[in-house]
Design brief:
Helix content is about 30%, strand content about 25%. The chain is of the alpha+beta class. The protein has a domain at about 1-45: Irregular (Rhinovirus 14, subunit 4).
Length: about 70
């Protein structure tokens, strides 16, 4: 490898919003990283899958943009 062209590869402390913390290596310029989801709290890995209210999101989208196609058709 060429010298002095690669970013520094150092230890980074990763902390999840669930409280899980671990150390990994990264080229990130920070010493700490905060994440929202990790393997301890992600529904796929933990087996605690939950239903996401997608119907409410669709209704909200239709309410906001539902008349968009009608205006363009006139």
């Amino acid at each position: 490898m060429k010298q002095n062209i690669h970013p520094a590869y150092k230890d980074v402390s990763v902390t999840c919003s669930c409280g899980n913390a671990f150390v990994t290596k990264s080229t990130l310029g920070k010493d700490a990283l905060h994440i929202e989801v990790c393997s301890q709290c992600h529904p796929f890995y933990s087996g605690k899958q939950r239903l996401v209210d997608s119907a409410g999101r669709v209704d909200k989208f239709r309410q906001k943009f539902g008349s968009f196609g009608k205006i363009a058709a006139k």
